[in-house]
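Support request from a user on the community tier.

User writes: "When I paste my structure tokens into the form, the page sometimes reloads and wipes my input. The last time it worked, I copied everything first. Here is what I submitted, just in case something in the input itself triggers the reload:"
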């Protein structure tokens, strides 16, 4: 089974990992620039790419060292080549191609969103396919019918914000800084969700869709007046209550639609990937609901939910086995959806 040097540089993280058999992580490193972007309130693409250029060589050396391998020992290199920021994608892809040319190895290009779901293979012997998968991250909140790694059909998803984006906007509303998801999650644990009643948009509708706009607006009007423009006058406990109220609504919607979709598809296994899958409220809710139903729940470890390179190695292994190697002139696809010439089969 293959040993793969995998890269993930689609947004602000720079991640490199060595993964064996698509399951065992031999070494992994992530250089994060999140703190640099706090002052900007979000990712600045050009700055992200400049950081990635600087980080990549050192990270490659560090993971190969830790795994006790040389480049020549690898079977392939892998990269998340779509979707993402063009400059960031180019950094990882160029690095992977240059090293692959030097070591005479193939490059496997994978879809970042699919890789988030393939992360369920890491550290796990067997995955009970087919299953219902949710990718909830800063850019995506979508449900998939998953037949295998990289074999999935989109069933539905958000009609406005992605879940992580909504968490980040609620954090900004509460002046909690960026990225906001982890902070909202932490404060929510000691808040009272009933203090701010919030809607659960589309939850009772049969349509497999999510919407976060109404939840955010309702919270905004409750904490900053009917125009949403009053100064924030919440004390510490008030912010905790606001976080708890948003988290309860978001978790109800994300989990509710996941089970709705699974029941409709006739499967009894669900998986969640992406940064929001780190959320303790969501994890606890899914664990309780799956235990009550006797269903399988597949959640990657938190470090493999947020952007990471091990998930790229997990998806690349089965693709490599199918001979799906990228051509040398492969370009990154910022908006996603690989075209027919993106991989050679
Ligand atoms: O998957 P990811 O690392 O990057 C993208 O592909 O977008 O997801 C990042 C998103 C951010 O919006 C971040 O606020 C959110 O995931 N996030 C969380 C938590 N940890 C990260 N949201 C809610 N609760 C968390 N614990
Ligand atoms: Zn991601």
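"...and here is what came back when it finally went through:"
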């Amino acid at each position: 089974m293959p040993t793969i040097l995998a890269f993930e540089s689609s947004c602000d993280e720079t991640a490199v990992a060595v993964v064996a058999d698509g399951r065992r992580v031999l070494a992994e490193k992530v250089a994060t620039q999140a703190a640099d972007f706090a002052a900007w309130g979000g990712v600045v693409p050009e700055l992200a790419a400049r950081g990635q250029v600087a980080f990549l060589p050192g990270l490659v050396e560090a993971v190969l060292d830790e795994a006790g391998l040389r480049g020549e020992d690898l079977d392939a290199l892998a990269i998340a080549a779509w979707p993402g920021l063009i400059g960031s994608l180019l950094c990882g892809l160029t690095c992977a191609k240059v090293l692959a040319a030097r070591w005479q190895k193939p490059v496997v290009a994978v879809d970042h969103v699919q890789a988030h779901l393939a992360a369920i293979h890491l550290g796990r012997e067997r995955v009970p396919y087919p299953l219902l998968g949710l990718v909830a991250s800063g850019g995506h909140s979508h449900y998939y019918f998953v037949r295998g790694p990289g074999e999935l059909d989109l069933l539905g998803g958000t009609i406005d914000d992605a879940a992580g984006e909504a968490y980040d906007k609620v954090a900004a509303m509460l002046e909690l800084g960026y990225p906001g998801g982890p902070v909202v999650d932490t404060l929510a644990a000691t808040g009272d969700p009933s203090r701010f009643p919030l809607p659960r948009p589309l939850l009772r509708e049969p349509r497999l869709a999510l919407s976060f706009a109404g939840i955010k607006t309702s919270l905004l009007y409750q904490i900053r007046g009917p125009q949403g423009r009053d100064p924030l006058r919440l004390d510490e406990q008030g912010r905790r209550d606001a976080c708890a109220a948003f988290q309860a609504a978001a978790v109800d919607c994300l989990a509710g639609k996941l089970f709705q979709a699974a029941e409709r598809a006739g499967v009894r296994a669900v998986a969640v990937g992406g940064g929001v899958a780190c959320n303790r409220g969501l994890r606890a809710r899914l664990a309780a609901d799956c235990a009550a139903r006797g269903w399988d729940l597949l959640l990657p470890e938190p470090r493999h939910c947020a952007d990471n390179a091990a998930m790229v190695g997990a998806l690349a292994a089965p693709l490599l086995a199918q001979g799906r190697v990228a051509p040398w002139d492969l370009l990154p696809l910022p908006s996603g959806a690989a075209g027919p010439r993106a991989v050679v089969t």
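Agent notes: The reload is a front-end session timeout and is unrelated to the input. Residues 229 and 264 are 42 Å apart (CA to CA). The chain has ten helices and eleven strands. Escalated to web team.
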